[in-house]
Write a structure and sequence with these properties.
It is a single chain. By secondary structure, the protein is mainly alpha-helical. The chain has one domain: Winged helix-like DNA-binding domain superfamily/Winged helix DNA-binding domain (Arc Repressor Mutant, subunit A, Orthogonal Bundle). Helices cover 68% and strands 11% of the residues. It is built from 7 helices and 3 strands; from the N terminus they run αααβααββαα. It has a 3-stranded antiparallel beta sheet. Helix 3 packs across helix 6. The longest helix is centred in the first third of the chain and has 28 residues. The radius of gyration is 19 Å and the shape is globular. The two termini are 32 Å apart.
Length: 158
């Protein structure tokens, strides 16, 4: 039984919506994880790390990667070690700080990532294909309001 099925009509509609959002997120994420594993023999965290690096051509420090991915430094180190062993990322020293380095995609890593990213985009579009373009835009706008409200309440911005 998923979380959503546990909610009943006597629960507030907002709680039922929250559980539906979680259920949808889990279902789409499970599908994406399976497809990444099946087609590219990779994991979602590896894909996410490469996506962060793709957006930063000069590379990112490990602590910045950790912050952006919202995971521990140890997780980032492990994934980075794997990707480096496969020639998909490299480490470059940071001028003025002998202990620090930046991680960046190699040309091979950029090529591999672009292939995965196109498929990932297609899979996400398929996941939302039950909705019209107008419904997608409306849902995006409404969730944006929820995000903004939550950021104001917590004093965070993403």
């Amino acid at each position: 039984m998923d979380m959503e099925a546990r909610a009943h009509s006597e629960h507030p509609e907002a709680l039922r919506l929250w559980l539906r959002l979680l259920t949808c997120t889990q279902l789409v994420e499970k599908e994406l994880r399976g497809r990444l594993r099946g087609q590219f023999d990779t994991t979602l965290p590896r894909f996410d790390l490469m996506a962060q690096l793709e957006r930063a051509p000069d590379g990112l420090k490990m602590n910045e990667l950790s912050r952006r991915m919202m995971v521990t430094g140890g997780n980032v180190t492990g994934i980075t070690d794997q990707l480096a062993a496969e020639g998909l990322v490299d480490r470059v020293g940071v001028e003025g700080d002998r202990r620090a380095f930046r991680v960046r995609l190699t040309p091979k890593g950029r090529k591999v990532f672009h292939g995965m990213a196109q498929q990932h985009e297609d899979w996400v579009v398929q996941a939302f294909s039950a909705l019209s373009e107008k419904e997608i835009a409306t849902l995006h706008r409404l969730l944006g309001k929820v995000k903004q409200h939550a950021q104001q309440r917590t004093g965070t911005a993403t």
